[in-house]
Amino acid sequence: MSAADRLIDELRTHALVIGEVVLTSGATAQYYVDAKRAILRPAGFTALAELVAERARAWGATAVGGTTMGADPVACAALAGGADVKAFFVRKETKAHGLQRRIEGPLLEPGDRCLIVEDVVTTGGSTLLSIEAVREAGHEIVGVVAVLDRLAGGAERISSAAGAPYVALATIDDVYPDRPDAA
After folding, report:
1. 5 lies in a domain?
2. How many helices and strands, by DSSP H and E, does the chain display?
3. Is position 19 within any domain?
4. 3-state secondary structure 35-61
5. For 83, what's the count of Cα atoms within 13 Å in the CB-facing half-sphere?
6. What is the CATH classification number for the domain harbouring 83?
7. Is residue 105 part of a domain?
Protein backbone atom coordinates (compact mmCIF):
# COMPACT_ATOMS: atom_id res chain seq x y z
CA MET A 1 0.00 0.00 0.00
CA SER A 2 1.33 3.44 -0.92
CA ALA A 3 1.86 6.18 1.66
CA ALA A 4 -1.04 8.13 0.13
CA ASP A 5 -3.37 5.11 0.43
CA ARG A 6 -2.23 4.47 4.02
CA LEU A 7 -2.88 8.10 4.95
CA ILE A 8 -6.38 8.01 3.44
CA ASP A 9 -7.14 4.74 5.22
CA GLU A 10 -5.95 6.15 8.55
CA LEU A 11 -8.02 9.32 8.06
CA ARG A 12 -11.11 7.30 7.19
CA THR A 13 -10.65 4.92 10.13
CA HIS A 14 -9.56 7.30 12.88
CA ALA A 15 -10.30 10.93 11.92
CA LEU A 16 -13.78 10.95 10.38
CA VAL A 17 -16.50 11.90 12.87
CA ILE A 18 -20.12 11.75 11.69
CA GLY A 19 -22.48 14.23 13.36
CA GLU A 20 -23.22 17.95 13.40
CA VAL A 21 -20.28 20.19 14.29
CA VAL A 22 -19.39 23.87 14.05
CA LEU A 23 -16.23 24.42 12.02
CA THR A 24 -13.52 27.02 12.68
CA SER A 25 -15.09 29.13 9.92
CA GLY A 26 -18.36 29.20 11.91
CA ALA A 27 -20.17 27.05 9.35
CA THR A 28 -22.11 23.99 10.48
CA ALA A 29 -21.28 20.60 8.95
CA GLN A 30 -22.70 17.08 9.27
CA TYR A 31 -19.24 15.56 9.66
CA TYR A 32 -15.83 16.51 10.95
CA VAL A 33 -12.34 15.35 10.10
CA ASP A 34 -10.07 15.52 13.14
CA ALA A 35 -6.88 14.73 11.22
CA LYS A 36 -4.77 14.70 14.39
CA ARG A 37 -6.59 11.50 15.45
CA ALA A 38 -5.04 9.78 12.44
CA ILE A 39 -1.70 11.53 11.92
CA LEU A 40 -0.65 11.25 15.56
CA ARG A 41 -0.79 7.45 15.35
CA PRO A 42 2.21 5.44 14.06
CA ALA A 43 0.80 4.40 10.66
CA GLY A 44 -0.70 7.81 9.90
CA PHE A 45 2.40 9.71 11.03
CA THR A 46 4.72 7.45 9.02
CA ALA A 47 2.66 7.92 5.86
CA LEU A 48 2.43 11.67 6.44
CA ALA A 49 6.18 11.92 7.06
CA GLU A 50 6.95 10.28 3.74
CA LEU A 51 4.52 12.47 1.79
CA VAL A 52 5.41 15.84 3.36
CA ALA A 53 9.16 15.21 3.19
CA GLU A 54 8.74 14.29 -0.48
CA ARG A 55 6.96 17.63 -1.20
CA ALA A 56 9.57 19.59 0.79
CA ARG A 57 12.40 18.03 -1.24
CA ALA A 58 10.57 18.44 -4.58
CA TRP A 59 9.95 22.15 -3.99
CA GLY A 60 13.37 22.88 -2.45
CA ALA A 61 11.96 23.94 0.93
CA THR A 62 14.39 24.79 3.72
CA ALA A 63 11.68 25.36 6.34
CA VAL A 64 8.26 23.79 6.95
CA GLY A 65 5.50 25.17 9.14
CA GLY A 66 2.19 26.87 9.55
CA THR A 67 -0.40 27.98 12.06
CA THR A 68 -0.17 26.20 15.39
CA MET A 69 -1.91 23.65 16.20
CA GLY A 70 -2.97 22.36 12.79
CA ALA A 71 0.50 22.59 11.30
CA ASP A 72 2.48 21.30 14.30
CA PRO A 73 2.36 17.53 13.60
CA VAL A 74 2.64 18.09 9.85
CA ALA A 75 5.82 20.18 10.18
CA CYS A 76 7.31 17.63 12.58
CA ALA A 77 6.42 14.85 10.14
CA ALA A 78 8.62 16.53 7.51
CA LEU A 79 11.56 16.24 9.91
CA ALA A 80 10.71 12.62 10.71
CA GLY A 81 10.50 11.89 6.98
CA GLY A 82 14.10 12.99 6.54
CA ALA A 83 13.58 16.38 4.91
CA ASP A 84 16.54 18.68 5.53
CA VAL A 85 14.38 21.53 6.83
CA LYS A 86 13.66 23.58 9.93
CA ALA A 87 10.20 23.22 11.44
CA PHE A 88 8.38 26.35 12.58
CA PHE A 89 5.01 27.31 14.02
CA VAL A 90 3.07 30.51 13.41
CA ARG A 91 1.07 31.96 16.30
CA LYS A 92 -2.24 33.65 15.55
CA GLU A 93 -0.87 36.72 17.35
CA THR A 94 2.60 37.82 18.38
CA LYS A 95 3.49 36.52 21.83
CA ALA A 96 3.21 39.33 24.42
CA HIS A 97 6.01 38.05 26.66
CA GLY A 98 9.33 36.23 26.37
CA LEU A 99 10.92 36.81 22.97
CA GLN A 100 7.66 38.25 21.60
CA ARG A 101 7.78 36.20 18.41
CA ARG A 102 4.99 35.28 16.05
CA ILE A 103 7.01 32.62 14.25
CA GLU A 104 8.40 30.06 16.71
CA GLY A 105 11.16 27.51 16.23
CA PRO A 106 14.63 27.90 14.76
CA LEU A 107 15.22 31.39 13.41
CA LEU A 108 14.36 31.62 9.74
CA GLU A 109 17.14 33.09 7.63
CA PRO A 110 16.53 35.59 4.81
CA GLY A 111 17.06 32.92 2.14
CA ASP A 112 14.79 30.28 3.67
CA ARG A 113 12.22 28.78 1.32
CA CYS A 114 9.08 27.98 3.29
CA LEU A 115 6.60 25.19 2.77
CA ILE A 116 3.34 26.08 4.52
CA VAL A 117 1.46 23.10 5.96
CA GLU A 118 -2.00 22.56 7.47
CA ASP A 119 -3.95 19.58 8.74
CA VAL A 120 -7.44 20.33 7.38
CA VAL A 121 -8.45 23.06 4.93
CA THR A 122 -12.04 24.28 4.69
CA THR A 123 -12.05 28.00 3.85
CA GLY A 124 -8.27 28.33 4.13
CA GLY A 125 -8.40 31.01 6.83
CA SER A 126 -5.65 29.75 9.13
CA THR A 127 -3.43 28.86 6.18
CA LEU A 128 -3.82 32.41 4.89
CA LEU A 129 -2.70 33.72 8.32
CA SER A 130 0.49 31.67 8.00
CA ILE A 131 1.15 32.85 4.47
CA GLU A 132 0.74 36.46 5.58
CA ALA A 133 3.01 36.05 8.65
CA VAL A 134 5.77 34.30 6.69
CA ARG A 135 5.63 36.89 3.90
CA GLU A 136 5.66 39.77 6.43
CA ALA A 137 8.82 38.23 7.92
CA GLY A 138 10.37 38.44 4.44
CA HIS A 139 10.39 34.76 3.47
CA GLU A 140 9.56 33.05 0.20
CA ILE A 141 6.74 30.51 0.04
CA VAL A 142 7.49 27.56 -2.24
CA GLY A 143 4.24 25.68 -1.74
CA VAL A 144 1.38 24.71 0.52
CA VAL A 145 0.47 21.17 1.64
CA ALA A 146 -2.76 20.22 3.40
CA VAL A 147 -3.30 16.79 4.90
CA LEU A 148 -6.99 16.96 3.93
CA ASP A 149 -9.02 19.41 1.86
CA ARG A 150 -12.77 19.56 2.59
CA LEU A 151 -13.29 20.95 -0.95
CA ALA A 152 -15.08 24.04 0.36
CA GLY A 153 -13.20 26.76 -1.54
CA GLY A 154 -10.07 26.98 0.58
CA ALA A 155 -7.77 25.61 -2.12
CA GLU A 156 -8.57 28.45 -4.50
CA ARG A 157 -8.06 31.12 -1.82
CA ILE A 158 -4.76 29.56 -0.72
CA SER A 159 -3.39 29.12 -4.27
CA SER A 160 -4.19 32.73 -5.07
CA ALA A 161 -2.63 34.11 -1.87
CA ALA A 162 0.44 31.87 -1.87
CA GLY A 163 1.41 32.36 -5.49
CA ALA A 164 2.85 28.85 -5.19
CA PRO A 165 1.63 25.30 -5.71
CA TYR A 166 -1.03 23.87 -3.40
CA VAL A 167 -1.36 20.13 -2.83
CA ALA A 168 -3.88 18.28 -0.69
CA LEU A 169 -2.61 14.84 0.31
CA ALA A 170 -6.24 13.71 0.58
CA THR A 171 -9.67 15.22 -0.01
CA ILE A 172 -12.99 14.64 1.64
CA ASP A 173 -13.96 12.72 -1.52
CA ASP A 174 -11.22 10.19 -0.68
CA VAL A 175 -12.16 9.88 2.98
CA TYR A 176 -15.97 10.20 2.93
CA PRO A 177 -17.23 9.83 -0.66
CA ASP A 178 -20.81 8.98 0.45
CA ARG A 179 -21.29 12.07 2.61
CA PRO A 180 -24.68 13.82 2.43
CA ASP A 181 -23.30 16.97 0.74
CA ALA A 182 -21.27 15.11 -1.92
CA ALA A 183 -21.67 16.59 -5.38
Report:
1. no
2. 7, 8
3. no
4. CHHHHCCHHHHHHHHHHHHHHHHHCCC
5. 31
6. 3.40.50.2020
7. yes
